[in-house]
Amino acid sequence: MSESFSFNEWESALDVPADLLADDGRGIHELKISNKLYKSKEEIEASTVAESLGDVDRALWIVNRGQPIQKLSVINNFSQLMDEYPRRALDEVLPAILNSAASSVWHQEYQTALCAFIKSILDQVPVGSPFIPAALEIAKALMKSDKEAIVQCWSTVYLACIERGLAHDTMLQMIKTAIVEGGFTQPAPCRVWCAKVLGSAVRHFSPADIQAHFLDKALSLCQDTDQEVRASMGLQLAQFARSVDSKTRHDRILPEFVDLILDEEVGVREAAVQGLSHVLDCLPVDAKRTYVIPTWTATLGDVQLAKVLAREFGVFFWHCKACMTEADMATFIKYYLDQAQATDMDVRVHCAYNMPAMVKSLGTDARLMTAISKLCNDPQVVVRHRMCLCLSVLADLLGAECYQHLRTSFFTLFGDNEHIFETLLPSLDAITRRFLADPAFQKGTDMNDFLFIVFRKIRELIAKAKWPQVHACLVQARNYAEYFDPEAVYDICIPVLTRIIYEAPRAALQDLGTQLAVQSIRRFRRLDHRDAQCRALVADLAFSSSFRYRMQYLGVCSHVLALASGKLFRTYFAHAYLALSADAVLGVRRKMVALLPSAAAAIAGAAADDPLVKKYAATVAYLRGTGVDVLDSWPAVADEDADADREREADEDAAVRDDLEDARRKDGELRRLMAGMDKDVVAAAAAAAAVGNGVSATRTTVDARGVVG
Q1: What is the C-alpha to C-alpha distance for residues 496 and 512, in angstroms, rounded to an integer?
Q2: Of 6, 39, 290, 641, which one has the fewest beta carbons inside 10 Å?
Q3: In whole angstroms, what is the distance from residue 62 CA to residue 183 CA?
């Protein structure tokens, strides 16, 4: 049959509505997606919040009637509600958020975020707050869910409520229930849960109550037949060690720790080592010598515990170093140094993590400095990243010797890949200040070399157009004008800052570059450097054909008025600034007028017959003639800032005066040297004349300057 049959004819033939037939044709998966994407008008209106509601009322509406994805916004913005409406946020919004848990059990993302939010609130509310038992009841109800993820996240809330503290009778009843449900005939997860409840509650009971009610149960769980239970108790036993009396700790808790550390299962041993590290700060010397140090010595050769021992080594060594014999000290130091060249990357990462504790304990030990160098040159980025995070702490610990020991490591990491450089960058200013305290840093050309390397890196970032990193570098280098020699700053920093001022595409970066340039100019000791840089800024920016550069010049004037003296502004920038009153661009004129009160305060320091004063008066008259609202008087704070302005002017004059005095001193030394050379030349000429009367007919003469002719 050649006769075609259209889809519309199927509708009439089958007597089926077109929309239903279309749904059948699309397939079930496409239909589900359409139901999610295309909502009816009623569904949309049901989730639409009225614009007239206030912040708290809007939050309450969303929590009570909104979708889980909307409720997440209330959780994320709760801190802002607390700042603005503390009473209503605590009394109305917080209980509503807590009650919304039961209606959104099916939304796992919201449940996870809600549990994390509740735990953060539990850390902030005072003990005895009604929020704690309310959260406990919600957690107890939702822990009966058939979804494992929901049970896991709410069980952490349940334990957090116990750790925060409840009524004594309530907690005692909870412990009795946990002991019954965690009996030896119960499944292993029940006994694990019992261990967690006991560990969370033990800190709220006296040593007598602990020993009377549940210490024996906790110790019996340490000997459980399932390794999950023993591992759980290895972590919880630290809370018991802190809460019981010293005799019970020494006679009953620490022996259990030793047994768990020597357990046959790796997971149990790891948990016990980690738990013991959490209690080292409260153990007496005899306990460390009797239990801790021998146990650690026995486990050093356990390859399966290499990672956990490396992770906890810093805490162990810091708390036990005073109790060690010389043989123990040598053994543990050797063990730590071997970690720096271990084949396992995680062990080397933990070695780097513990380096500050070792430097704090041993000082500038040459072996530690070698280990630092190895870790900073490690082939794995993760290890070098950890050393970047530790470097500023190491600089603080090494004090006045930090540059001698960390110089090579710093430059290695600073010149590393982008990830390592960005990790090190936030601590650059702190490390620089520590280096400046080292006398070795100030000898020779080390300071200039350091400055050159930092700004060479900035030039490389500019060439790659990585402007966010350039901005971060300038933030760290904002005090370099104070740290380094002004001549080095002029030669190394100023060209880079000038390039940033001219080329940076971001106004914030240009402004920061301008600020640093002005701070540097104020500290120049050579007047020709100051003249050259100021005149270059005026010529390149104020008289540029680009209005953006002229706007940038007004930014320069703003920083000069804020950071420098009025004299510096009057000398170099005021004339070009006043000339911008007739600029063709309205934005330039507006910004110029906005700075006029501060400029007036600076110009007021000039003499009455100074041409600048007349030019200022003419500029004000011209602006008023064009209808601009001009504030002719300087701000009220200008009088208060007069002393500060005089101090800034004195600093700038002193910097140049030092240069002039140095120039005079050098000129005097040169004159004295030349005078001494003149005397030597005259004496030599006289001697030659006396000796050579018959040898030569040539007449030797000496002019007034001592030049032999």
Answers
A1: 12
A2: 6
A3: 44
Band the pLDDT of 55: cuts 50, 70, 90: confident
Share of the chain above pLDDT 70, in %: 82
- Please provide the distance, in angstroms rounded to a whole number, between the alpha carbons at the two ends of the chain: 129
Domain locations in the chain?
7-38, 53-166, 168-339, 524-659
| Nearest-angstrom CA–CA distance, 664 and 687 | 35
| 8 Å CB contact between 220 and 191 | no
Q: In the structure encoding, which two tokens stand for residue 419, read together?
A: 């990830």
- CA pair distance 317, 323, nearest whole angstrom: 10
What whole-number distance in Å separates Cα of residue 460 and Cα of residue 469? 11
Q: Is this model's pTM higher than 0.90 or not?
A: no
Output the six-digit token pair for 202: 């033990």
Q: CA-CA distance, 579 to 559, in Å (whole number)?
A: 18
Helix (H/G/I), strand (E/B), else coil: 47: coil
287 pLDDT higher than 50: yes
Residue 5 in this model has a pLDDT that exceeds 80: no
| pLDDT, tens digit (0-9, with 9 covering 90-100), for 24-48 | 555 555 555 555 556 666 666 666 7
Residues ≥6 apart with Cβ < 8 Å to 652? 522, 564, 565, 567, 568
d(CA 262, CA 620): 88
CB atoms near residue 617 (< 10 Å): 12
Q: What is the CA radius of gyration of the chain?
A: 39
Q: What is the DSSP letter of 390?
A: H
Cα 83 from Cα 373, distance rounded (Å): 48
- For residues 468 and 462, give the distance between their C-alpha atoms in angstroms, rounded to a whole number: 10
How many angstroms from the chain centroid is the CA of residue 288? 37
* CATH code, 168-339: 1.25.10.10
Residue whose entry in the numeric block shows the structure tokens 């309450």:
60
- Phi, psi (deg, nearest 5) at residue 708: -75, 130
The CA distance from 601 to 61, in Å, is 55
CB atoms inside a 10 Å sphere around CB 495: 12
**Chain-centroid distance, C-alpha 600:** 41
Q: Dump pLDDT digits (tens) for 510-546.
A: 999 999 999 999 888 888 888 999 999 999 999 888 8
Indicate the average pLDDT of the chain. Answer: 84
Helix (H, G, I), strand (E, B) or coil at 702: strand
Name the helix (H) or strand (E) containing 451.
Answer: helix 446-463
Long-range contacts of 495-498 (CB under 8 A, 24+ apart): 496/455, 496/458, 496/459, 496/462, 498/536
For 80-91, what is each residue's pLDDT tens digit?
989 898 899 888
What average pLDDT does the segment 138-167 reach?
A: 90
Q: Are 554 and 561 in contact (CB under 8 A)?
A: no
- Interatomic CA distance for residues 634 and 569, integer angstroms: 15
CA–CA separation, 118 and 110 (whole Å): 12
CB atoms < 10 A from the CB of 273, how many? 23
DSSP conformation class of 706: -
pLDDT of residue 49: 72
Read off the pLDDT of residues 288-297 as tens digits, 9 standing for 90 and up: 999 999 999 9
CA distance 421 to 31: 51
Are 541 and 553 in contact by the 8 Å Cβ rule? The answer is yes
At 583-632, the pLDDT tens digits run 888 888 889 888 888 888 888 888 878 888 889 888 888 888 777 766 55
Q: Residue 70 above 70 pLDDT?
A: yes
Nearest CA to 184 out of 243, 225, 231 is that of 225
Q: Cβ neighbours of residue 540 under 8 Å, at least 6 residues apart?
A: 502, 549
Residue 393 near residue 356 (C-beta atoms within 8 A): yes
Separation of alpha carbons 207 and 264, rounded Å: 31
